[in-house]
Amino acid sequence: MSEPTSDFGEGDVAQRRPKWRKAEPAKEVWTAFADSRRLLTGEPLGVASAVREVLVATPEARVLVFDDRTGETVDWDAGKEAGGLAVSSEDPGDGGRGAAVVGTAVPRGPGRPKLGVVAREVTLLPRHWEWLAEQPGGASVALRKLVEQARRSGRDEDERRRAREAAYRFMAAAAGDEPGFEEAIRGLFAGRRDAFEAGMAAWPRDVREHARHLAGVSFGAATGPSMDSAASGVTP
User: Fold this and answer.
1) Closest CA to 45 of 22, 74, 69, 23
2) Are 59 and 85 in contact (CB under 8 A)?
3) SS3 annotation, the chain
4) Is the sign of the CA dihedral 72, 77, 81, 84 positive or negative?
5) In this structure, are residues 210 and 235 in contact, taking their beta carbons and an 8 Å threshold?
6) Backbone φ and ψ of 48, nearest 5°
7) pLDDT tens per residue, range 181-234
8) Residue partners of 225: CB distance under 8 A and separation at least 6
9) Which residues make Cβ contacts (< 8 Å) with residue 84, sequence separation at least 6?
10) Which long-range contacts (CB under 8 A, 24 or more apart) does 53-59 make?
11) pLDDT tens, 59-114?
């Protein structure tokens, strides 16, 4: 990214140059289903409240809650807190919502602490080491630049892969027994939207709509809730 230009003097430019802001991490979004009906999509606390109300009113309801970023189910335990719902999530960013998190601390390796630099073994051929040694800043700087360049060049494909995997996890949990499941999955991973849609044709509407939403980027463009989802009165 090129530096911004200005008509000010060099000292003024240094003082007025904008600071580049780090991209905000994606917000955590959950979606709750009661049987095949979508209850709510939103931030975890609001979804927890909706699920609590359903389980209090209908204890026998089959409720599944999904993390929309990954398509994975969120584990719920309704029997350990009196009058409420205990939430268990593997995501360490619980935001103070009372999630029980289990994890292990990762020891910090050598390097500047504020960067979190970690030293690990890298095996290369002699010609690779020779080339790295000739680069400005040495081998470590050159390797970091190469990794960042590869990350940027592969970002679109990474997003498509994550969308496919999220949609697959949701479909396996919510529609694994539905007719056309295998055909829909094959269409998903082959990038064939027509086969994907055809396989889901007989599925419950809310399940079909959410699978379509999660898989949207994998077909090259994001898709939001469709008109029949909006007309159904389901909370977006």
Assistant:
1) 74
2) no
3) CCCCCCCCCHHHHHHHCCCCCCCCCCCCCEEEEECCEEEEEECHHHHHHHHHHHHHHCCCCCEEEEECCCCCECEEECCCCCCCCEEECCCCCCCCCCCECCCCCCCCCCCCHHHCCCCCCCCCCHHHHHHHHCCCCHHHHHHHHHHHHHHHHCHHHHHHHHHHHHHHHHHHHHHCCCCCHHHHHHHHHHCCHHHHHHHCCCCCHHHHHHHHHHHHHHHCCCCCCCHHHHHCCCCC
4) positive
5) no
6) -60, -40
7) 999 999 999 999 999 999 999 999 999 999 999 999 888 754 444 434 333 334
8) 209, 213, 234, 236
9) 52
10) 55/85, 58/34
11) 888 899 999 999 999 875 543 333 344 444 444 344 433 333 233 334 445 544 45
75, β-bridge pairs:
88
Q: What is the C-alpha to C-alpha distance for residues 181 and 209, in angstroms, rounded to an integer?
A: 14
Which amino acid, residue 17?
A: R
